[in-house]
Amino acid sequence: MSYYLVTGGAGFIGSHLVEELLKLNKKVIIIDDLSMGKKENIPEHENVTFIKGDISDSEFVTDIFMRYQFEKIYHLGAIASVAASVETPLVTHKTNLDATLYLLEGAKKQGILKRFIFASSAAVFGDEPTLPKTETSDIKPLSPYAIDKYASEQYVLTYNRLYNLPTTAVRFFNVFGSRQNPSSPYSGVVSILTDKFLELEKNHQVEFTLYGDGEQTRDFIYVKDVVSALVLVGESEKAIGEVFNVGTGNSISLNELISLYEKLTGLKLHIKREDERAGDIKYSYSDITKIKGIGFQSLYNMEKGLTEYWNEETKRKE
Ligand code: UD2
């Protein structure tokens, strides 16, 4: 029997992907050390096997490949924190780069893999100002996190060129949706805003810290669009050996996002203004011509994604 492996499958994006793979009748193995992911994110389903473990432990990864045969690997597991990578680069490097190599080696030796999909990040572009970002735009990784993402994606693509392993890399822009953890100041801004609006709904006094003038823009993509992109690149033969941007191709400013959220919830957010955050980029959005070329369509604009996210969160908190 062969499985789909999802590293980081208990995390924000990974758990949404697992739900979709189950709908597609796949047998899924999740590896997650639960450092950022949560057990309750894992669907209870006969086709899911959860293994708690650390992908930066090479013996653990070798043992997994001895026990299971993999048809496809979605490698989403990472220490997804730029701040953590700046504080402890040696630690994050093991998870964000070494682990990628352990998985690639395991897959290469097993020799039956149909696809290895790696989740990279728009962080690889850094603050290089040319917009929109295409897959061939200049790379300027500015943190250990971005360097490890870039190095990993290049290893992944090189394993295709050198060893004919069928690999694909995707660069996520700003993903949002349920189960994204809002607890750190460096969490995704949409999850932080959602948390604030949920507090406001309970009549609690809260304020949102807005860094800079609010005119910074981002290409926010709803997690369900990201899942469709992951399934699509995992199935398309044309995606082998390629890297794809995963965004919507549109962007919205923080000011516009806040107004939209206020309109949606009927609540007024109190805003505390602070200086622009060091290292922040001003504008970002993706060119998604390449992934559209293999059939991708973003089905959620900001309003639709935010509405679904808000409805899910309010239902959950009832
Ligand atoms: C994203 C990634 C980050 C790194 C970076 C590379 C996420 C969550 N973060 O950061 O890991 O890869 O891209 O470019 O995907 N903001 C506020 N108040 C808050 C929180 C944020 O004003 O409480 C601002 C923040 O200063 C920024 C914007 O909102 O201008 C978006 O922040 P973000 O952390 O969600 O995303 P980004 O693109 O800066």
From TrEMBL:
It holds the Pfam family Epimerase. It comes from the Bacteria. InterPro entries: Epimerase_deHydtase, NAD(P)-bd_dom_sf. SUPFAM superfamilies: NAD(P)-binding Rossmann-fold domains. Residues 5-247 form the NAD-dependent epimerase/dehydratase domain. Belongs to the NAD(P)-dependent epimerase/dehydratase family. This is Epimerase.
